[in-house]
């Protein structure tokens, strides 16, 4: 009787224990699936392509105005008026400054009176020769006519008057070309001798960029080559220019001076500004992938290729590189899907999901 109760109870306990164990196994399988899902890495990929590779040469340089002139006072006297200030834009012929014109006015008037007197003396000499007007002197031999003009002082008076006229115009300093005023220090009522120069006039419509490259690059550069110019003060803007000069001399540091020119209609470049220079030249028939796809592993270079949702580890040999891309000589073929983002923690055969 006792055994009749024990046996069913034992069977019941075993059945409950079996259900509990099966439940734990099911939960373990679910956790394993969750962990397996968590191990999937979301990555970005790009298809390797065969194309022209842009080889980049980067250098630093300075912007210089294509035309720049230090303007001086042509007449030594007291500064009467300064019509501009630093930063003002002027047109060719605009009056920048004026000095006192009293001396120049007196000199011009004296020269005019001397010329008038010489002209009267010449007319008197012509009458003495038996002629009525200057036009009649065409009948004279050239040497006799020249001697008559010299004896009367007419020739020298004409030259003196022209000189006085020229000096009178120099009391006003005018802009020789369109540009912007810089380094202006002159002030009215001061002697012109107090200033080394009046100002600097800068034509910034075109800017030259001067930079240095290693002597090993001189064979790759030539006039007309395109360059990209980026101001350090404003990285958002890049201007395009062309090389106009490669100095055929290497300095003591093994550097070669190169000069490029660019339009500056937007006024992004200022004389003396520091700039970054980027020169690109193309090399044909290279397999190209993103630079971030190449990883260092165990002293070698590795690229992960995505195949059927798996990250496949491949050793590669790289060639040229620039700021964004690298060429591959061995290990990758055109059309391979390479992983270039979120690839640092990958291992061979890891499951990956391609981000759309």
UniProtKB/TrEMBL annotation:
The record's family statement is: Belongs to the membrane fusion protein (MFP) (TC 8.A.1) family.
Gene Ontology molecular function: efflux transmembrane transporter activity
The source organism is Butyricimonas paravirosa
Give residue ranges for domain CusB-like beta-barrel: 209-280
Q: What name is this protein filed under? A: Efflux RND transporter periplasmic adaptor subunit
Identify the residues that the record assigns to the Multidrug resistance protein MdtA-like C-terminal permuted SH3 domain, covering every copy: 287-340
Fetch the Gene3D superfamilies from UniProt.
2.40.30.170, 2.40.420.20, 2.40.50.100
Question: What are the transmembrane regions?
Answer: none
Q: Could you name the Gene Ontology cellular component terms for this entry?
A: efflux pump complex
| Alphabetized Pfam families for the sequence | Beta-barrel_RND_2, RND-MFP_C
Family matches, as InterPro entries = Beta-barrel_RND_2, MdtA-like_C, RND_pump_MFP
């Amino acid at each position: 009787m006792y055994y009749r109760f024990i046996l069913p109870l034992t069977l019941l306990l075993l059945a409950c224990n079996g259900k509990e164990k099966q439940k734990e196994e099911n939960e373990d399988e679910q956790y394993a699936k969750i962990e397996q899902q968590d191990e999937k890495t979301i990555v970005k990929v790009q298809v390797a392509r065969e194309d022209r590779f842009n080889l980049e040469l980067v250098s630093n340089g300075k912007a210089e105005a294509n035309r720049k002139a230090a303007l001086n006072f042509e007449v030594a006297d007291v500064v009467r008026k300064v019509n501009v200030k630093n930063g003002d834009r002027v047109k060719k012929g605009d009056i920048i400054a004026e000095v006192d014109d009293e001396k120049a006015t007196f000199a011009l008037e004296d020269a005019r009176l001397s010329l008038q007197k010489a002209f009267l003396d010449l007319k008197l000499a012509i009458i003495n020769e038996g002629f009525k007007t200057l036009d009649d002197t065409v009948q004279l031999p050239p040497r006799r006519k020249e001697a008559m003009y010299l004896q009367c002082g007419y020739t020298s008076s004409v030259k003196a008057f022209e000189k006085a006229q020229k000096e009178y115009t120099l009391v006003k300093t005018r802009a020789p070309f369109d540009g912007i005023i810089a380094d202006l220090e002159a002030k009215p009522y001061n002697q012109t001798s107090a200033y080394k120069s009046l100002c600097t006039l800068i034509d910034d419509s075109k800017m030259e960029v001067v930079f240095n490259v290693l002597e090993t690059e001189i064979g790759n550069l030539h006039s007309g080559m395109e360059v990209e110019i980026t101001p350090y003060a404003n990285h958002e803007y890049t201007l395009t220019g062309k090389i106009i000069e490669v100095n055929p001399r290497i300095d003591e540091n093994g550097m070669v001076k190169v000069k490029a020119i660019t339009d500056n209609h937007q006024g992004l470049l200022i004389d003396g500004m520091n700039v970054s220079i980027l020169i690109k030249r193309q090399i044909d028939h290279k397999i190209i992938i993103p630079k971030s796809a190449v990883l260092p592993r165990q002293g070698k270079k590795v690229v992960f290729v995505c195949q059927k949702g798996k990250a496949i580890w491949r050793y590669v040999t790289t060639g040229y590189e620039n700021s964004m891309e690298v060429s591959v000589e061995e290990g990758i073929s055109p059309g391979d899907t390479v992983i270039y983002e979120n690839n640092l923690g990958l291992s061979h055969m890891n499951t990956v999901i391609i981000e759309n």
